[in-house]
Design brief:
68% helix; transmembrane helix; membrane; DUF4328 domain-containing protein; DUF4328
């Protein structure tokens, strides 16, 4: 059965709490990663991240419009339309496409900075709630996003540890929201890179049309990922705020 104190690890065979909680109750124990952790409110940062993610959604919607315009023009050219309006439409679509990319990049960079500050804060808070429930050191909460390959799963693993540690003392929450957000984010990143490569290599109108269609798909998935990220950030922020206000967890009575 689960430990009746932390509700994260299995209890020892002859007891009702886990070995970690038993050791913590017997004597002061230093945090497993070597530095002390203190609670800091994530509410302000969480709201700021949610607002910035909303800006990312707006930028993606602008990009989707630009994608549709470019896709339409590329399709007309691929179909053999040689009217005088086509070159003008193509130039306008290209300018709109470039502008949308710049807006997306600016929104993403601003959001990423604040998100990483928030993510590190909730990671430290989670260590206060449960010092022994983390598989990666807190530095990976930031660094894990920048290391190639491992950035496809390290942040999710850290997010799940934070989520579990921040859940109610007696009722751990489902991982469905975290997994949905992470799946959408990974799909959008992979699709975006493949689409960008296809667009750079495209030379003919049909190739450009297909590449823009791929970019359109990536932007739509990115909207989904950003919306799920907003829900993840607001939910986790609320979980930590509620848990901090509830005070230390108490052992749960266990029936015979």
């Amino acid at each position: 059965m689960l430990c009746t104190r932390c509700r994260h690890f299995d209890a020892t065979p002859d007891g009702v709490i886990c070995a970690q909680c038993a050791a913590a109750g017997a004597a002061p124990v230093a945090p497993p990663h070597g530095r002390g952790a203190w609670l800091s409110s994530p509410v302000g940062l969480g709201r700021a991240v949610a607002v910035l993610l909303g800006a990312v959604v707006a930028a993606d919607l602008f990009a989707i419009w630009a994608d549709l315009v470019s896709y339409d023009v590329a399709g007309d050219i691929a179909d053999g339309d040689t009217s005088a309006a086509v070159p003008r439409r193509a130039e306008s679509a290209d300018s709109l496409f470039v502008a949308a990319g710049s807006v997306q990049t600016a929104a993403l960079l601003c959001t990423a900075v604040v998100f990483l500050v928030w993510f590190h804060r909730v990671r430290v808070n989670a260590e206060v709630f449960h010092p022994f429930g983390h598989r990666k050191k807190r530095g990976w909460a930031v660094g894990g996003w920048f290391v190639p390959i491992v950035n496809l799963w390290f942040p999710r693993r850290i997010a799940l540890d934070i989520w579990d540690a921040s859940s109610s003392w007696n009722a751990p929450r489902s991982h469905a929201l975290v997994n949905a957000w992470w799946a959408a984010w990974v799909i959008s990143q992979v699709a975006g890179r493949l689409a960008s490569t296809a667009y750079r290599r495209a030379e003919t109108a049909p190739e450009i049309e297909r590449a823009v269609g791929q970019i359109l798909f990536a932007d739509v998935v990115d909207v989904v990922a950003a919306v799920l990220a907003i829900l993840f950030v607001l939910t986790l922020t609320r979980m930590q705020d509620t848990k901090a206000r509830s005070g230390p967890g108490a052992p749960v009575p266990v029936s015979g």
